[in-house]
Write a structure and sequence with these properties.
Blueprint lengths: L2 H8 L2 H12 L3 H15 L6 H7 L4 E6 L2 E6 L11 H6 L4
Antiparallel strand pairs: 1-2
Length: about 90
């Protein structure tokens, strides 16, 4: 569903006008960022954010928590999910 169609269902008339004006004024990269942020709001608490960031090949994921900055770079081993232990036991070639 396009972002503006989703917004039409979510906002009242004034809110929709403000949101539409903002969205229409965005460039390609800024629009893409807003689209990802909207998906994060839409699917919050469903455990999909990490997969979305990974699927969109973000060069790094940066979060600030309690004054500490955490960075996950694309080459980091934590950027990839390991094969489950049971699968590795059944197939040692993984």
């Amino acid at each position: 569903m396009p972002l503006l169609a989703l917004a039409a269902k979510r906002y009242n008339a004034t809110g929709l006008t403000n949101f539409t004006t903002t969205i229409n004024g965005l460039s390609g990269d800024a629009y893409y960022t807003e689209l990802l942020n909207e998906r994060a709001r839409e699917t919050s608490f469903e455990g999909l954010r990490w997969f979305d960031l990974r699927r969109t090949t973000q060069p790094s994921i940066i979060h600030v928590y309690d004054g500490t900055t955490y960075t996950l770079s694309s080459g980091d081993a934590r950027y990839t999910l390991p094969f489950p232990r049971e699968a590795r036991l059944k197939n040692p070639n993984l």
